[in-house]
Amino acid sequence: DWAALRAVNPDIVGWIWQSGTTINYPLLKGADNEKYLKTTYNNQSSRLGSIFLDYRSSLSGRNAVIYGHNAGNGMMFATLVKYRNRAYYDENPYFYIITEAGTEKYQIFSVYQVTTDSDTYTFSFDSDAAYEAYLRAVQMRSAYNTGVTVGVDDKVVTLSTCTNTGEEIRFVVHAKRIEG
To answer: What gap in Å lies between CA 85 and CA 5, rounded to an integer?
Structure first.
């Protein structure tokens, strides 16, 4: 019920869900990347914050970046770091983003650790060649080969969470839209 969700918070742009994990949250987009670091979808103060889309990116863009805390209680994006293990990937290769327009299925193609100043967090590309180079680079960084191919016609979502191993270190999961 999108009207009910928007009544709670007009910044809700979708819902992210992954079967068999704790990922099942409203997806927000604020005017900056600060508000939802420590604010829940219903505008309550919380150290866990919300799952949120980078204010500079869009779900309709080539690379939509979504952030969430790696909560010690296993909530938010804590399960993303489990992708270090190939067996976890084999059991959980997909996630879904539901919007008012419908449900989109995403297939994970790359997982790795990176610093916050990495080009992983690129949102726009000057050309198809630049986007293709980006896709090749993020696939090369993957902890293992997923066997999933990705190209310039694909829309990508990058999930990013802290690793608790350093203030500037993040774990990222890239996925391409395969349905929707």
So the answer is: 35
Identify the pLDDT of residue 71. Answer: 78
The closest of 167, 80, 81, 66 to 116, measured between CA atoms, is 167
Structure tokens at 30: 């604020």
Which residue in this structure is represented by tokens 């694909």? 154
The secondary structure element, H or E, covering residue 169 is strand 169-179
* Torsion of the alpha carbons at 33, 27, 115 and 136, rounded to the nearest 10: -120
User: Quick one: which of 35, 29, 24, 32 has its CA closest to 12?
Assistant: 29
How many CB atoms neighbour CB 50 within 10 A? Answer: 27
Q: Is 162 a catalytic residue?
A: yes
- What are the DSSP E strand ranges found in 7-166? 12-17, 24-28, 51-53, 63-67, 94-99, 102-115, 156-162
> Tens digits of per-residue pLDDT, 96-129?
999 999 999 999 999 999 988 899 999 899 999 9
| Identified catalytic residue from 78, 162, 172, 175 | 162
CA 83 – CA 48 distance, rounded (Å): 21
Residues in the chain: 180
